[in-house]
Amino acid sequence: MSWSSVGLAALDHPFFLHAVLAGGAIAVAAGLTGYFLVLRAQIFTGDALSHTAFTGALAALALGWDLRIGLFAATIGVALLLGVLGRRSRADDVTIGSAFSWILGLGVFFLTLYTTTRSTANGNAGVSVLFGSIFGLSASAAWTAVLIALVVCAAVLALARPLLFASLDEAVAAARGLPVRLLGLAFLALVGACAAEATQAVGSLLLLGLLAAPAGAAQRLTDSPYRALALSAVLALGEMWAGLALGYAVPSVPPSFGIMAAATVVYGLTFLPRPSGRRGRAVRALA
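Above: the chain sequence. Below: its structure as tokens.
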């Protein structure tokens, strides 16, 4: 069976259309926010949110709430907390490892509480949060994901110029009167919202890859900040759709794995020698 015939067959299934619609919007939002995460050296935040998403979602389910309430409350709350702490949040490896283990342990506790106190509950909820359930989205859930992703994209693009200036030279940006700290907090809130919505696509376990891999590849392919920002979004979109196509064509392959496999391959290809040879880091004055 050719890929074209697979694609035509896939479009006949509403679940695949919902996944393409929601996944595409989520990928673009992740590509835009992920670029600034990489540029600002805040990948640690994405790692923290991947742990937090699991615990927040399971806490909401254990309390009988919609899991999105827990996802958004936990990821946005932790992102803002890290922003408020600033440099003080850069603890040693032992502290970070202990905190992350405690957060995951708390998630397991909520999963156990959920499965033992609710007669209709089962362990599949934890699996869905960890690895995503994008092929299980309803039409309303897909459109909700699109709406949230569009809001995140619009906000990131609105903040792009001042945020880029503050990311490249924070001291000069502050001297020019930019509210650097407020910009950072607003950006982290957007990252938290994006992470919460992206969890249903790739799961909390692989969330960091969706935020970091396309952005890392884009930074290696171009020195222009604005081109890299656009390229990060395009790569994330292409990798999302490629992973969904692979997951549909090969049912034994989870779509989240397909998405991360595509992202990893693209990032790996950026290390191949290029004819141009020279790659530098452009730092522009954007006042």
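The chain has one domain: 3-269.
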